[in-house]
């Protein structure tokens, strides 16, 4: 976030000799500061209450850009407008917006709080699984009811449930509805699970990890292990979530069999855009106030924050859990557009990619995270979709389907090395933040105070 | 009429047959021999075998090989040998009997069942065959397919056996067969007890069928009862009733499907049994409708819940042993109990060896990581790709050098050199700039990791590449039926041990090791003492990467070499380092031991599901970190830092 | 007068090295105390124990009139109980403005939800301005702390310590890197603070300690060597031997 837009002294006039300023009121502690009377000191403008938008200029521009994008996509979409865009492309854009929400969450937990979580895409996937359960169950129920309607004897509830079970679990050779599907018949309950499952999992894991003061690289590896454990668990057939088959047919909304995918895609796009807007507002609000200040302080020197009396572990747990829930919600919006979810989506690599997006976009800046996620995931779709032109080198032809990952990996190394502030850093050059001296990256934020660390 | 004659013949054959010449027996039983069946031919074969005629073996052999024929003209039997015109004939006393055209002869073609009986009868001849190889083969065939008929011939063949090894084998087999087939229980019990603490697979195979149980229902239990099952406690009422149905003691229960069908067949004016169709979406309404149909006699009565309970209460459910004699089963159970205990011990030993070899692999995979992570505090996510690089180096060397041993000898140093160079290049180009930003090192090396993985895929393709070990590494060191370890795993354990020694030597006894330790503990101080930390970091990183390459060759020897080989090991390697404790080679060793042992133990407890094993493993590690956040071997006090 | 902080019989060792050896120490609610001692005497470890960073192997640390044991509390809980600490080298949040640093330190509910809904009230704003004025940083409120000069950072940290409104202030070498005039000001401030707070100052500089004009505790090899007025302890032959004698 950039700094206040107030006028501040230029470097040339800064830092009046401390000695002289003390001599003006040598009464020591308790003496009335002369600043209280007379002209308002320039510095205190930093404390003046200002509107949310004034503190967060990026919010306005971001919402404007999102609104424009939504309008353009709506006009070009096959459902309402000219049809210049294919339904699948509208879906891709909608999905990208959901990924941007996850990137926002990742930015708050990593860019602001300094926890490099390699597990947030797992929460994203869990949200998808939770909504997927309802979608698949309700949709299969419709099909089963329709199939049974031809019978002269109307079906009982048990018969319908059994029919649904056979349909869903035939592939994994099970005939009983697993316990985890107990709430699948109900949308409100399953929506609650979208929030609760990632939230509770993140809560338990975070409590264990932060309680034992695991930090830095250790924590990253531990979150990666958690993600791996989760995806391996889901790969099993007896996890009750159809093993490596995953959940499919999620693009068909129950009760809307007549509605075309053209319409559904633009509805979901709107929902995703709205979700992203709300998530951005939420994150901007949370990170701009004192809460954000504490988070950045924790990132830079958590021991010092502890000595100020803040329950650092509580803050970390709060942020970890809240962002996990946000990811879960984003996943619940994403997978109905993707249509299918399987355990591979939860693999550690997905969460690492999330970190890559945020790093390329620019950590510690909400718009940076969004730009990174949108740009890299769209480019990735373009390159791996085989649509990028091949590059003939004479002796060898570069087919981007094969080489995109190499390009991405190297680009990522370059960003880490040469542009640690990511793409978002470019915006700072266009509109320099109100700050003097050398810019401070997240990692240079605090002097590594030896004494506080030993 | 024909059936009657057959029955009569069978009766006749059941009487003990006089020892006659083969020719006489065959002539007497010609009808049975012409149309043999498994049920009726047994006594004929036995009498042939027991005849004592030296031709018996030859005739039986010919019969079993479909070389026995009957001349159409006089119904005489001959042993056939195909020649240019048709068959050369040999009569059953062994004398040549001229030739015959194919058309004159009816070949006997006994079916598989009969051939089996013939083969069993032949065993007694081969058991005493002068050729020891044939005798051993006969013993093997009996051991593989034990049957009661073999027991007597086997016993008869023991006395004459001259080869001591074969004699011991025969004696053991005789006791095994006695356990299963001897008619007197005392002999069987003695045989069981004679094995003492033996725990061979063959003994278990002989004992287990005796104590196999089957579930039965009857009003009063009979047979050798293993235990009785109380419905509702040991067995559900549904299962008990299903047993009754299977034993034809009770009518089948009405399934929902059948009920629905019955109801659908009796729809009258949109109603079934007076209940409208719309209401039938409820099971109770359906039951009512069905009862109404029952009372009107339209459908057969089906068992209601009460009837099921009554039927189950009337009968007893119990399990019986396959072996009817309780004394024999008691002896067998006791012997099996003893066997289970000793097998349990040996399985533990085998598991421990498996655990050690897995630990060695993790140690090899993690040792490089432990160096770079522990000594330099640098997370190298591309470590897995260095392992892959080593494995592919081995593959390429093998395609160039066909000799397996030589190529392996070349591959190890070459893999070290290549990955050492790659590591140094990476350190110089990337990591050097990120020493103060550990989290970003993690990300940058991850970028390298995905790029390298794709490059491997583009060069070597996605299919697995073989890396074959030389023949002298094939096979396994077998201690007994349970405990064994493959030589390749032994080699990897040895390699891990060598690496531990070499590493300790470098760190404790060389100038380089001293400098590395100095830089680790205090880089500023080391620099002021004239040590170049840059050079040390570069060499350390190269060393760690080089070891990854060597680990890659050894892992490639028993795992498939794909571009994802290293990625499969990277998380376990991290876990090894984290669990073991950072900055200490013994930490990596302890971590590898713990993770390897634990993984094998979990796999043993839940053998069907390796995925679950890995999940529990990782969960355990997460909990372990709670107890010892700094790993098993932790640096203490101020040196540990915060 | 009952003691605010009572440390008794505390020992702690790192890898066999006894950093603190059966140390006992107590301070009243309004008292100024200086702790001196050579390097490795255990001054910083002593502070670590009081603030909860290091757990002692044995001994008790009790706090306040109710005699709560600090050993069972976390660092944050101890800080909230009223123990404030200023580090030897300035530790401020360099990526945040002076105003933000002060607002962070300002006494207020510390939970995540409280922080989320926190709003700087008029009184809070006035307090921040007051503190900034007291340490001469009024003109720098909107600057990043990382851009301040070393001395200014020291002052910012002192202001943050005051903003916490602790009952006990642990101040580690406050005068390091300060000009003579600043030292005088610091001395005056510490003396003034001690009228209503308990203040423990760890210092090397003898002149500075003399100017504080308070009771002095001499630490050596992890335990108290002598205690009393500066003149008294400097006359102690043992103290001269281990500390002053070396210059």
UniProtKB/TrEMBL annotation, chain A:
Its main location: membrane. Residues 1-19, 33-42 have a biased composition (Low complexity). The keyword Iron-sulfur does not apply. Signal peptide: none annotated. One of its GO terms (cellular component) is plasma membrane. InterPro entries: ABC_transp_permease, ABC_transptr_urea_perm_UrtC, LivM-like. It is a multi-pass membrane protein. Keywords: Cell membrane, Membrane, Transmembrane, Transmembrane helix. It comes from the Bacteria. CDD domains: TM_PBP1_LivM_like (cd06581). GO terms for molecular function: branched-chain amino acid transmembrane transporter activity. Residues 1-42, 435-454 are annotated as: Disordered. Pfam families: BPD_transp_2 (PF02653). It is found in: Cell membrane. The keyword Membrane applies. The chain crosses the membrane at residues 59-85, 97-126, 187-210, 217-235, 264-286, 307-334, 340-359, 366-383, 403-420. This is Urea ABC transporter permease subunit UrtC.
TrEMBL record, chain B:
Coiled coil: none annotated. It is a multi-pass membrane protein. The chain crosses the membrane at residues 355-375, 407-426, 487-507, 538-558, 570-598, 610-627. GO terms for molecular function: transmembrane transporter activity. It is found in: Cell membrane. It comes from the Bacteria. Residues 1-19 form the signal peptide. One of its GO terms (cellular component) is plasma membrane. Its main location: membrane. CDD domains: TM_PBP1_LivH_like (cd06582). Keywords: Amino-acid transport, Cell membrane, Membrane, Signal, Transmembrane, Transmembrane helix, Transport. GO terms for biological process: amino acid transport. It holds the Pfam family BPD_transp_2. Belongs to the binding-protein-dependent transport system permease family. LivHM subfamily. NCBIfam families: urea_trans_UrtB. This is Urea ABC transporter permease subunit UrtB. It comes from Stagnihabitans tardus.
Automatic annotation (TrEMBL), chain C:
GO terms for cellular component: plasma membrane. The lineage of its organism: Bacteria, Pseudomonadati, Pseudomonadota, Alphaproteobacteria, Rhodobacterales. NCBIfam families: urea_trans_UrtD. Residues 5-246 form the ABC transporter domain. This is Urea ABC transporter ATP-binding protein UrtD. Keywords: ATP-binding, Nucleotide-binding, Transport. PROSITE patterns: ABC_TRANSPORTER_2. It comes from the Bacteria. InterPro entries: AAA+_ATPase, ABC_AA/LPS_Transport, ABC_transporter-like_ATP-bd, ABC_transptr_urea_ATP-bd_UrtD, BCA_ABC_TP_C, P-loop_NTPase. It comes from Stagnihabitans tardus. One of its GO terms (molecular function) is ATP binding.
């Amino acid at each position: 976030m950039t700094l206040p837009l107030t006028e501040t002294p230029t470097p040339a006039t800064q830092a009046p000799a401390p000695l002289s300023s003390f001599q003006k009121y040598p009464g020591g502690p308790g003496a009335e500061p002369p600043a209280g009377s007379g002209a308002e000191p320039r510095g205190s403008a930093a404390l003046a209450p200002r509107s949310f938008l004034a503190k967060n200029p990026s919010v306005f521009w971001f919402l404007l850009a999102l609104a424009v994008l939504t309008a353009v996509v709506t006009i070009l979409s096959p459902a309402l407008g000219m049809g210049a865009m294919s339904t699948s492309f509208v879906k891709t854009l909608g999905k990208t917006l959901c990924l941007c929400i996850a990137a926002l969450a990742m930015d708050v937990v990593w860019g602001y709080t300094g926890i490099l979580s390699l597990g947030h895409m797992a929460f994203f996937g869990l949200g998808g699984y939770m909504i997927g359960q309802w979608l698949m169950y309700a949709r299969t129920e419709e099909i089963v009811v329709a199939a049974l309607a031809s019978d002269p004897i109307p079906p009982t509830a048990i018969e319908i449930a059994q029919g649904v079970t056979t349909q869903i679990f035939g592939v994994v050779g099970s005939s009983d509805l697993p316990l985890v599907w107990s709430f699948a018949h109900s949308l409100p309950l399953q929506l609650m699970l979208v929030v609760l499952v990632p939230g509770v999992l993140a809560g338990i894991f975070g409590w264990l990890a932060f309680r034992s003061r695991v930090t830095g690289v250790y924590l990253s590896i531990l979150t990666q292990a958690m993600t791996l454990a989760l995806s391996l668990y889901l790969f099993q057939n007896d996890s009750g979530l159809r093993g490596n088959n995953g959940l499919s047919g999620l693009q068909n909304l129950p009760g809307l069999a007549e509605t075309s995918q053209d319409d559904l895609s633009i509805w979901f796009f709107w929902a995703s855009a709205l979700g992203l807007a709300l998530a951005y507002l939420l994150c901007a609000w949370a990170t701009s106030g004192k809460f954000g200040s504490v988070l950045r302080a924790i990132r830079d020197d958590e021991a010092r924050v502890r000595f100020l009396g803040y329950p650092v572990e509580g803050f970390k747990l709060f942020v970890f859990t809240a962002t996990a829930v946000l990811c879960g919600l984003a996943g619940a919006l994403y997978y109905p557009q993707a249509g299918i979810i399987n355990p591979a989506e939860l693999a550690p690599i997905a969460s690492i990619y999330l970190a890559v997006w945020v790093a390329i976009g620019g950590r510690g800046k909400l718009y940076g995270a969004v730009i990174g996620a949108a740009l890299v995931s769209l480019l990735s779709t373009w390159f791996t979709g085989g649509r990028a032109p091949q590059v003939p080198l004479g002796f060898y032809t570069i087919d981007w389907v094969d080489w995109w990952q190499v390009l991405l990996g190297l680009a990522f190394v370059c960003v880490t090395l040469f542009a640690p502030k990511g793409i978002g850093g470019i915006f700072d050059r266009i509109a320099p933040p109100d700050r003097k001296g050398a810019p401070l990256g997240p990692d240079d934020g605090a002097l590594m105070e030896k004494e506080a660390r030993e | 009429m024909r059936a009657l004659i057959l029955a009569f013949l069978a009766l006749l054959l059941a009487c003990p047959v006089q020892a006659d010449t083969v020719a006489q027996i065959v002539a007497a039983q010609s009808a049975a021999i012409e149309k043999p069946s498994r049920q009726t031919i047994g006594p004929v074969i036995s009498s042939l075998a027991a005849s004592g005629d030296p031709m018996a073996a030859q005739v039986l052999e010919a019969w079993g090989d479909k070389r026995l024929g009957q001349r159409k003209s006089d119904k005489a039997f001959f042993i056939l040998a195909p020649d240019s015109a048709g068959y050369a004939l040999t009569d059953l006393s062994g004398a040549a009997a001229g030739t015959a055209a194919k058309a004159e002869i009816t070949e006997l073609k006994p079916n598989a069942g009969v051939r089996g009986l013939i083969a069993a009868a032949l065993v007694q001849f081969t058991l005493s065959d002068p050729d020891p190889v044939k005798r051993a083969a006969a013993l093997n065939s009996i051991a593989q397919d034990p049957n009661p008929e073999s027991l007597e011939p086997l016993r008869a063949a023991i006395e004459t056996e001259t080869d001591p090894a074969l004699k011991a084998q025969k004696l053991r087999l005789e006791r095994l067969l006695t356990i299963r087939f001897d008619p007197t229980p005392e002999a069987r019990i003695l045989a069981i007890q004679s094995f003492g603490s033996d725990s061979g697979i063959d003994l278990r195979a002989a004992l287990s069928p005796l104590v196999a149980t089957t579930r039965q229902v009857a009003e009063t239990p009979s047979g050798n009862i293993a235990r009785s099952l109380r419905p509702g406690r040991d067995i559900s009422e549904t299962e008990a009733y299903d047993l009754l149905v299977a034993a034809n003691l009770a009518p089948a229960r009405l399934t929902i499907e059948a009920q629905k069908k019955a109801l659908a067949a009796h729809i009258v004016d949109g109603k079934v049994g007076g209940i409208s169709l719309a209401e039938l979406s409820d099971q109770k309404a359906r039951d009512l409708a069905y009862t109404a149909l029952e009372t009107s006699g339209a459908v057969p009565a089906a068992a209601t819940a009460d009837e099921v309970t009554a039927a189950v209460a009337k009968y007893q459910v119990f399990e019986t042993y396959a072996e009817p004699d309780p004394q024999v089963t008691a002896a067998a159970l006791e012997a099996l109990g003893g066997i289970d205990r000793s097998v349990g011990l040996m399985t533990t030993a085998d598991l421990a060896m498996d655990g050690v070899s897995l630990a060695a692999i993790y140690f090899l995979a993690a040792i490089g990581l432990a160096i770079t992570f522990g000594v330099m505090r640098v997370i190298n996510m591309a470590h897995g790709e260095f392992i892959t690089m080593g494995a592919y180096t081995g593959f390429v060397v093998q395609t160039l050098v066909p000799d397996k041993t030589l190529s392996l000898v070349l591959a190890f140093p070459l893999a070290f050199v290549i990955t050492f160079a790659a590591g140094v290049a990476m350190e110089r180009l990337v990591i050097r700039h990120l020493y103060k930003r550990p989290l970003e090192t993690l990300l940058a090396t991850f970028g390298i990791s995905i790029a390298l993985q794709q490059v491997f895929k583009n060069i070597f393709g996605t299919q697995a590449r073989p890396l074959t070990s030389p023949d002298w590494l094939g096979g396994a060191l077998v201690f007994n039926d349970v405990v064994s370890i493959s030589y390749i795993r032994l080699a990897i354990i040895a390699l891990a041990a060598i690496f531990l020694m070499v590493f300790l030597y470098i760190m404790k006894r060389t100038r380089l090791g001293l400098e590395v330790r100095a830089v680790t503990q205090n880089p500023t101080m080391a620099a002021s003492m004239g040590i170049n930390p840059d050079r040390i970091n570069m060499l350390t990183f190269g060393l760690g990467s080089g070891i990854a390459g060597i680990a890659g060759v050894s892992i490639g020897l028993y795992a498939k070499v794909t571009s994802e080989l290293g990625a499969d090991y990277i998380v376990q390697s991290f876990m090894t380092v984290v669990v073991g404790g950072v900055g200490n080679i013994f930490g990596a060793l302890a971590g590898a031991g713990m993770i390897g042992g634990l993984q094998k133990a979990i796999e043993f407890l839940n053998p069907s599901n390796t995925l679950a094993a890995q999940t529990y493993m990782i969960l355990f590690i997460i909990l372990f970190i709670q107890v010892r956040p700094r790993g098993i071997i932790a640096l203490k006090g101020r040196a540990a830092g915060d | 007068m009952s003691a605010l902080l009572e440390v008794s019989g505390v020992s702690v060792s790192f890898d066999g090295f006894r950093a603190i050896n059966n140390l006992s120490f107590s301070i009243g609610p309004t008292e100024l105390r200086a702790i001196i001692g050579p390097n490795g005497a255990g001054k910083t470890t002593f502070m670590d124990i009081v603030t909860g960073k290091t757990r002692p192997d044995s001994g008790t640390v009790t706090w306040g009139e109710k005699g709560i044991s600090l050993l069972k509390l976390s660092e944050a809980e101890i800080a909230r109980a009223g123990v404030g600490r200023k580090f030897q080298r300035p530790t401020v949040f360099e990526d945040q403005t002076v105003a933000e640093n002060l607002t962070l330190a300002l006494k207020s509910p510390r939970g995540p939800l409280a922080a989320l809904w926190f709003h700087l009230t008029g009184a809070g704003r006035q307090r921040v301005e007051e503190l900034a004025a007291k340490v001469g940083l009024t003109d720098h409120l909107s600057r990043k702390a990382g851009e301040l000069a070393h001395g200014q950072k020291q002052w910012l940290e002192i202001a943050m310590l005051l903003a916490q409104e602790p009952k006990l202030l642990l101040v580690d070498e406050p005068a390091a890197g300060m000009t003579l005039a600043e030292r005088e000001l610091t001395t005056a401030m510490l003396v003034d603070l001690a009228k209503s707070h308990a203040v423990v100052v760890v210092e090397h500089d003898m002149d500075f300690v003399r100017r504080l004009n308070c009771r002095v505790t001499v630490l050596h090899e992890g335990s108290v060597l002598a205690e009393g007025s500066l003149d008294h302890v400097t006359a102690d032959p043992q103290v001269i031997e281990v500390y002053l004698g070396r210059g």
